[in-house]
Hints:
The protein is α/β, with parallel strands linked by helices. The protein has helices at residues 2-12, 28-38, 50-56, 91-101, 121-130, 161-164, and strands at 24-26, 42-46, 64-65, 69-77, 82-87, 109-113, 136-139, 146-147, 157-159. The strands form three sheets. A five-stranded parallel β-sheet has the order 1-7-6-2-3. Strands 4-5 form a two-stranded antiparallel sheet. Strands 8-9 form a two-stranded antiparallel ribbon.
Amino acid sequence: MRLLLTAFLITLGLSVHASADEALSLTAQETYNLVQEKGDQILFVDVRDPVEIMFIGFTDVVDINIPFMLADRTSFLADKNRFAMSRNPDFATGIKQALKDKGLSNDALIVTMCRSGSSRGKPSADYLLQNGFTNVKYIDHGFQGSGAKDGKKAGMRIVNGWQNAGLPWSMQLNPEKIYLPE
Length: 182
């Protein structure tokens, strides 16, 4: 019901402010449509680590890449078969600067996107809400989408998300938008 109400209000051009408890989600298609209609009024942020983007793909539709979590390549978690991740200490500062660079206030709509939507997309949106930003949403199922539950492609990320919605993306990175630590 909340998603339906959010979509209705966005269609009307009204702002929906989430509480600091929970950010609201948008689908990839809703986000794409919103950027096409009101791109100069929102900040669309890819919150993935740039190395992850390099291997999975990128959409130039985003305004900027500011990672919420950064992979620590000096700490491998054998039990999880991945590198440890730690919060980017410059995340909120980077968002503030990106808003300023675009001529937007901290009350402008910010949409975050990670690979799946749940591990960094929603947490990054919630983090921003808890740190003074008032209008934040995230893309449910993120850039790559969810894994298929059955069949020959079980586990492969071929369900929902930005890539699977047929929205623009490529393996080419835009150096003007990719995060480069200072």
